Fold these 2 entries.
Entry 1:
Amino acid sequence: MARTVLVTGGNRGIGLAIARAFAEQGDRVAVTHRGSGAPEGLFGVQCDITDSAAVDAAFTTVEQELGPVEVVVANAGITDDTLLLRMTEEQFSRVLDTNLTGSFRVAKRASSKMLRAKWGRIIFISSVVGLYGGPGQVNYAASKAGLVGMARSITRELGSRNITANVVAPGFIDTEMTDVLSEARKAEILKAIPAGRLAAPDEVARAVTFLAGDGAAYISGAVIPVDGGLGMGH
Ligand code: NDP
């Protein structure tokens, strides 16, 4: 059954792979962007997730064009790495405001229509770093760990209404976000990954479409790693 899907940050990277995977299986897919426009073949809405009015407007446009959002993927996210002693409060807050509060804004706006429909799928894109930690990533790890508590609380609130909330925790995926890592850091990370390689964005997308499907109706509050074994034991 075709669904209406909204992927934040679906204009590039992992979000784009997720949007394309839903589109391939015949769903009606919208992506947010911040001015780049929508990739070919996808419906785009301009939206900065740090602005609740913009999030509301984006949902309203998608609802008018494609129908109520049944599957929302809170994927948009940023890093701003530096060691704890050097991290400013502004750097901490900015990352939290995008990755954690931004996901809250999106999930909250989606949930009212899902409650009315008595069906919904909320999927948060976290990171292996949320539970594993990462040097220089106090802000990022805190934001990504927060998504686990958020999904689990939503599960307790909305679980009886056919609404699931899950977390996908990618390891190191080949996108612009990991392009900025130094070769030395990349080599160090590769040594720790049992799979011995980075993943392609599409490998994350397959976990997301699975969680959104009817076959995953009894999976909620889960953290699904897509990390080549890096975070085993979480
Ligand atoms: P990219 O840097 O390639 O893309 C980030 C996306 O987020 C872009 O679409 C960007 O939009 C969007 N975005 C950032 N800030 C905002 C905002 N305030 N409002 C709306 N959109 C915003 O990242 P990835 O594709 O690599 O990452 C996607 C998600 O996966 C992130 O949440 C990231 O933390 C997570 N992740 C990534 C991993 C990796 O190895 N790459 C590993 C684990 C998790 P714009 O184009 O306008 O800048």
Entry 2:
Amino acid sequence: DQSGSPSIPEDVLSLARGAQHVAVFSGAGISAESGVPTFREVPTGLWERFSAQDLATPEAFESDPALVHTWYRWRAALIQRVAPNRGHQALAEWQRQLTGSGGSLSIATQNVDDLHERAGAEVLAHLHGSSTAYRCAECEAPVELPAPRYDSDAAPAEPSDPPLCQVCEEGLIRPGVVWFGEPLPMEPFEAAADAIRAADLILVVGTSGLVQPAASLPLLGMERGTPLIEINPEPTELSDAMHHRLRGPAGELLPALVQ
Ligand code: BJW
């Protein structure tokens, strides 16, 4: 192949070319090539360096709000500094093409970053919330915080307290993300399930498939026998259920698939 792009098996290419309604389920791996750390990879994954129990649970926020607040502000700043990669761009382009020809491409992401959107795509569902959304931990009033500023990729040393809610004047402002033990937002979850049930092709990109209930969403396609394609350099919890497994980085495989 003279272009240097990875070769995709012909049967997978023809599935992609023939699809009219594509459902994409994405995870941290699609943003890895942009420089956003994933969660579970050794040694770069966030949960390899930080304790999920101390950061991504409601109990953690209750016991050390400054630590959790500061960590999420650091993550938000990191996300803001990076740019979408060729994987995000390929999906955005494919979405434009399909929408223009009467089809559709829906994106349900577990990521709290906005890199799909910044590549020009419309996201149907942010299943685990967003790094730019905040709300009161007590009265749930939504709040906008000024853009965070941390210059370094290293975690900030000095924790600072989250602001107090101006509405109820009782609660602390918490990140608008879904922590372990919390329910997923119902509307995005149902919208993602509907899109996956209606799809004629499902792409599972850059997720370990370990975190429920999100990880079960792509399997809804099995009800109708919809072809499932995984894009991931490594085998995952979902690999056995896939009809096709493309092993490699999303930033190379997605442009080759969507060409
Ligand atoms: C590349 C690549 C490249 C690298 N290209 N690919 C036992 C069984 C079942 C469930 C449970 C259980 N025990 C507890 C639970 C429940 C729990 C759960 O699932 N735990 C498991 C870990 C065991 N789930 C929950 O608690 C959920 N809520 C819930 O169940 O509620 C029930 C309830 C109902 C009613 C009332 C009350 C409660 C909530 C889960 C929330 C998850 N939150 C996080 C943090 C979000 C905020 C933040 O960003 O900080 O979401 S955890 C973290 O994991 C984040 C991610 O969205 C999520 C998924 O991770 P993801 O995206 O798959 O990343 P990785 O790192 O795991 O994988 C990256 C992949 O990319 C790898 O495969 C790489 O190979 C690949 N990759 N480079 C393509 N270039």
